[in-house]
Amino acid sequence: MDHIGLFPLFYFPDIGSAWLMGITGTIHILASHTSVGAAMLFAFLAHKAYREDRPELYEYMKKYGMFLLIFSYVIGSITGPGIWYTATAASPRGISALIHNFVWVWATEWVFFVYEVIGVFALVYFIGKIDRKTHLKLTYTFALASVGTLMLIIGIISFMMWPGTDAFYVTGSASDAFFGLNTFPHMFLRIGFMIMMSGVIGMVISSALPDRELRFELTRKMGLVSMLGGFLTLFFFMWYISTLPESAEVLLDLYLPDIIATRIGLMVAFSLYFAVAVFVPRLINQPLASVMVAVVLVVGLWPGEKLRESLRKPYVAGRYIYSNQIISRDVPGKGIKSEVEQLAQVGFLGASPWIPDRLRTITPENRLEVGHLLTKRACSNCHSLEKGGKFRPLMDKVAGWDAATIKTFMQTSLATGAIPYMPKIALPEAEFDAMAAWIATQNH
Amino acid sequence: MDAATLNLLRDPAGVPFYPVVFQALYVLTFALHAAFVLLSLGSMGLSLFGATRQGRDPHWKILTPHLIQTGKLSVSILIVLGVAPLLFTQVIYDPNWYVTNALSGVWVFAFIYLLILGYLTYYWYYYANKKGSSSNVLVGTVSFLLLVFAGVLMHNFAVESIQPDQWMQWYAPQGVVDTSGTNFHIQPIRLAFLVSLAIPVVGIFLQNYSQFLSTRNDFSKEYLGFVSSMGTKFASIGLIISAVLYAFWTLEAGVLLHPLSLATVAGVVVLLLLAIKNSNSYITTGVLVVVALLISSVREYIKYQIMIDVGYNIYDYPMNIDWPSVIMFLLTFVFLGFTGVAFITTMAWNVGKTQGVFDAQNHTATRRLASVTLWILVAWCLFYFAWGMMVLFKNVLG
Hints:
The complex is a heterodimer. Chain A has 15 helices and 2 strands. Chain A is mainly alpha-helical. Chain A has a two-stranded antiparallel sheet. In chain A, helix 1 packs across helix 7. The relative contact order of chain B is 0.10. The longest helix of chain B has 35 residues. The interface between A and B is large, with 98 and 102 residues.
């Protein structure tokens, strides 16, 4: 049989299904990083409150905690599985690869997650209802469990970029996949960001405290915490970048000029903001602090996530599955075989179990319909197909090209795998013909 | 779908452990998840009724906020518990899981945001009710409907996934491919049965509630009697309704006379007797857990059998056992999972029983559990880094 284990396609116009996932991912990063950061911050505050006997700090923790329950736990705990869920629809084989390699890691993370979720309710609602020493211990365990969830997920998302060495391909072992070259830099990068976010959100709460003195003290502290976090983020970012694969560097060169200006702007703005919090805390009020959270989300995280999605190209996971769901290489450790050559022979029409019979053979009547379907299959994971679409719009890339030019491009660049950030897509000539014909009808 | 294709849709990496273990974990975690789904559904629904009564009736004035709080906690817990069965099912039932998600991709995406919106509105309901605002019933109803719809979507995914013979037809009706991911299909009887269970679950919860608080002297006997007899009514009438729907559902699925199914029926009868008698609701709850596991097993059995009939057997899934990660999970699950959950539930139990501050330093069990949990976590982190470094040294330097 010629089939490859492909799944039905799900495609969301203009935005592309991959970005649907990106949207959920961005929101999740804000919520989850805040919650882990806050867990560490709580450990610090609870320690201080206990040692120095400062009941007002418990009040602050309670307020912060109530806010977190809604902001981080409702949103974070739903978007977390949400990313994975949306990814399943957008990139089934990519997620399946991760699941089948790391199901036990995820299951372990789930244990932490259960502890974290019941722990946060106990932490917030039992302030004043249990003795402080036990509460302090609870806070410590909560912080460790929260960081634990990061320690577990980080190896998986780092593997999506790449394992960094060849060990995994040979052994097929989850630990070789999990502890790759960029796992640790990535982890510390995120811890830095979490610390920063705990301060940024902490200011939203502290700036509205009724007691002036406490308000200034805590805002100042949150400013310092954010500064520390921001510094760690930058520092580990450098290390992280140096552990990326070569193809990512090509892409980075491509994208960096566009984003570098906003990144520097962000850095300056936030350094100023944190400095104000530390030196003139009375200038920080709740509206300003809330706006800064939104700035992090929209100007900081969204472009950052888009970049991360791009840097992984042409792969979606472990540098063995392309974004368009085709397995690109052998993984002897798991008995996995490359599908690129098979696809070149039978094409998507022969390989996909999901082609209706009337479209299996190309005829003059169905040529455009087949071309459309094939283009969706081969390209829509990385390009939206509508003219003026938002997600690396394909029609804008080939604007003005006629069918012959498009076909030549596909045969010379894609079929040979000459472009490092696009998959090697070799298909029978008839399929390229149909795709080129359809694309040409759309691009002007 | 033919057997060859279905088997091709399994992940080429194989499964990292015996499929039956994933199946068992699925049945277990689904039952836990469902228990909290039903509890939240029941307590939310009943709280809405209470919200219309609490102005005139002093009993409802106490009970309503407690039901709202119960609903709030249950939603959080059902979410965390819900992740696990999704994880385990997709390891062994790839075709079902991934095909369904693609066929209903838009709903998958919408599900997340509906759930967030529903839960946020629920917090709004909670605060509105606390403040005595008159919008509480309206806000609560909106939240309730959003959350129920999210549940219906989940049901949709589940029933789509067990109809492999329909997939191609849904994906390409009349041979025209539809990639919009808007498929939506429900099975009313199965849905009605699962939803109906919310009534007995909230009934047994009310019995527990009144038994638990009976040791505290700040709740009147009269009030607790009111709650407990309402609980009995809900439990008994609810169980009868559910039993009828259960019969229809299993008849439709052709498993009514399967031993698992008969065991479930026997469990329900025991449950009914215990609930009516209401002498110790904690024992009733124990039986409820068993029945929940049985229903979860019947549900899984239906799916398993459907897939066997089309030539897909999860037990034949090629294996690539990955011992290190299996061991990590088992150790974490057993040590951290049990100790950690025991710590927090013991603490919560005692806080609930105590008027004023619960001093856990004088309560050996809680004090020890707190320390042990902390040490397990510290040890866990140390192992993690040690393991990570070893792997990296081996792969980078070796």
